[in-house]
Amino acid sequence: MIARLTPLRFSNGAATRTIRQREYRIQRYCVDDVEMKYIVTFSLPRFLNLPFEQKLITIFHELYHISPQFDGDFRRHPGRYTMHSHSRAEYDRAMQRLVQVYLQEHDTPEVFAFLHLTSAQLAWKYGCISSIRVPKPLIVPSLPAA
Question: How much of the chain is helix, strand and coil, in % rounded to 5?
């Protein structure tokens, strides 16, 4: 695994889901009192050591999984293969096309210039690389109404 998107809601952005007559929710994750709807995880240094274009494809791949409604759920494709449509390879080719358009149309490439560097180069240039590990939120029973 190089990267992963973790949605923090159930299907269609629902905050709870009933499983075997019991209501469940996904643990909340907040930053500065703002509840997050998604967590994007990158495996370091593995992600940073990919070639530049592959890093962008990976970023686009994960972000494209976000629901167009930005409701905390995945984008779901029609049919049996809801995450990557019928072919993960075709999904990645579509992400590669999006990256190519992005690079052609982006007028401030300095915004993503750091992605040209490997983890060792980033550490040398900036002194260190810091990150946080956010545990994958658990699905837990909802608390009874007070």
Answer: 35, 20, 45
